[in-house]
Amino acid sequence: MAATRVLRWGLLGTARINRAVIPVMNEAARSSLEAVASRSLDRACTYAAEWQIPRALGSYEELLADPGVDAIYISLPNSLHVEWTVRALEAGKHVLCEKPLALSVEGVDEIEAAVRRTGRVAAEAFMYRHHPLTLAVERSVREGAIGELRFMRGAFTFPLTRAGDVRFDPALGGGSLWDVGCYPVSYSCFLAGTAPAEVFGWQETGPSGIDMAFAGMLKFPNGLAAQFDCGFRAAFRAEMEIVGTDGVLRVDRAFRTGPESQLLLTRGDETTPVSFDREDAYVGEIRDMAAAAFDGAAPRVPLSESRRTVETLRRLYASAAR
Questions:
Q1: CA distance to 103, 170, 175, 310, per residue, from 316 (Å)
Q2: Average pLDDT over the chain, rounded to an integer
Q3: In this model, does residue 73 exceed pLDDT 70?
Q4: Rounded distance, CA 320 to CA 298, Å?
Q5: What is the DSSP letter of 68?
Q6: What does the pLDDT look like over 241-254, one tens digit per residue?
Q7: 42 Cβ partners below 8 Å, 6+ apart?
Q8: In what order do the strands lie in the sheet with 122-125?
Q9: What is the model's pLDDT at position 149?
């Protein structure tokens, strides 16, 4: 029997989000974490020792040149996503890049062109799209559990109080819509199956000029509408409500999935829980990359979907700026 192929991962950067992904990479059946790169070798060595990563590299370029790495996980600030995704692809690596994949449609197109040139896989790390909770929502909607889809409402907020956080820096792609608003926006477009025909956005800016809070509305070609809010100045919320002609689905912890996540279906006066498999929030996206790299499977989040999300976010920012 042939040995199981293992996707050997390298971390490009030492962002906080890594600590959620590292255990999954170490435990996944077809993945292993091999290296971490930082702009400082001392920082990389300290990080590798803390997380028991075999190799520490003192530059991003060294990681891209490492023959013992097949795939790169990019958790750099938003403004660096396109550059390092393209460079990693050109170095022959598969790439899983944190959201947002790019800050412009042109950036997504640049990545797509690099994918075509290199034959490697690039995907945006919207982990919720792989989770059984989201799959249960999709199945319920497609099977008609709430009738014809009419309206969606989403929210993702939390208080960001850490001074110097990169999300406060406009030069690095900071802002609440890029950071958390992208979740309800992408979720709504996913269920609608298309980009909105019209958008409206309103933002509350902070001292650095980034949006500290954002609220928006999306109107889709078939008349379906969605409403969302996001921000860094409100209590934690991560929820979706999907309204149909015959019922309502309510998704608690829709984006930051965990033990508290639940899915409720209301039809008339009766509300019942909808069951779904419980698994780590990040298992699906790591499994998805191995399937794309080894089996030729299409990524669950295709670049066309990432392009649609980025284009919608740009349109919302343009609306808020008027």
A1: 13, 16, 13, 10
A2: 96
A3: yes
A4: 35
A5: T
A6: 999 999 999 999 99
A7: none
A8: 55-57, 31-37, 7-12, 71-74, 94-98, 122-125
A9: 97
Tell me the catalytic residues. Answer: 99
Cβ-in-10-Å burial (0-12, 13-18, 19+) of 151 comes to middle
Give the pLDDT confidence score for residue 172 in this predicted structure. Answer: 97
Nearest 5 degrees, angle CA 49-CA 54-CA 55? 90
Please tell me the distance from the alpha carbon of residue 233 to that of residue 253, in angstroms, as a whole number.
18
Asked if 162 and 15 count as a contact pair (C-beta separation under 8 A), the reply is no
What number of residues does the chain have?
322
Alpha-helical segments (H) within the chain: 18-27, 41-51, 60-65, 81-90, 105-118, 132-142, 176, 182-192, 283-295, 303-321
pLDDT digits (tens, 9 = 90+) for 146-172: 999 999 999 999 999 998 899 999 999
Residue position matching structure tokens 């889709």: 220
Q: Residues 315, 319, 320, 321: is their CA dihedral positive or negative?
A: positive
pLDDT of residue 1 exceeding 50, the answer is no
Average of per-residue pLDDT across 68-73: 98
Extract the tokens encoding 201: 């956005």
Phi, psi values for residue 183, rounded to 5°: -70, -60
User: Helices (H) and strands (E) in the chain — how many of each?
Assistant: 10, 14
β-bridge partners, 231: 157, 213
Say what the pLDDT of residue 281 is: 86
The predicted structure's pLDDT at residue 99: 97
DSSP state of 224: -
